[in-house]
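We store sequence, tokenised fold; for instance:
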Amino acid sequence: MAGELKQVRQIERCSVPQLLLLAAWLSLLLAALPIPARAWGAQGHQVVANLAQAQLSAKAKREVDRLLALEPGETLASISTWADEHRSPATAAWHYVNFPKNSCSYSAERDCPDGQCVVAAIDRQRDILASTATDEARLRALKYLVHLVADVHQPLHAGYAEDRGGNSYQLQAFMRGSNLHAFWDSGLIRALDQDTEVMTARLQATGDKATGSGNELGDPAKARSQGAQRPSGTLPSVAVQAAEESCRIVGQPGFYPGRLVDMPYVQRFAPLIEQRLRLAGARLAELINQAIR
């Protein structure tokens, strides 16, 4: 206690210039802290959930509302970050899949041999939601589904194994220490500086007219029909299609920036970010509608 009082008195005796210098030093220290990682950030997940909510069938909406009523006050948007908030060592691998560099064709045997990746997790949670499991189990599956579908549309959640999906690629983003994965998780959307409701409304209004790199088809079923065919001739699942798209985006020239990220990088990829959020919302609605028929 005596030591704490001594520190307080020392601060009180500081001159104004000294206090300003101390404040500046603290600001630099905080700026050096890494940006916390959460795919698309809370805002991106909420936008995807809002977009999906507007595309649910009448039957699916009724069932979703009934399940959400098990936890009064919850909405599709409010549960969109639940999977991150309740992440554990047992579920950490459910949020991503890693590909070998320059090999973006998903192979369960190679890329997800134990079923512990985002592709397999999405399929499992969709099956639970469609099953006759308890309401509690189906609500939990819905929470995972809402979150993981958004995750797999963030390109670096299906990036290269060699740099751990961009986690090993260190950079400085607007005076803050970060890595490429963390910057794509939340820094890019934060740099766009848009309110969640405003972004949701604008993406709903623009439909599939946004431009940018990658698959720009607004209809998720059409996107799959024009995507890569499996060896058997069957179409890939929503999760596989999204993961392969994300991997191909990571391989585009310029995706890996210099060590200092600036606004031109943000502006270049802003249309792509919006396209991925929009497609995630459409695909999430498609999965829920399929599960609740």
User: Anything to note?
Assistant: Residues 4-12, 16-37, 209-234 have pLDDT under 50 and may be disordered.
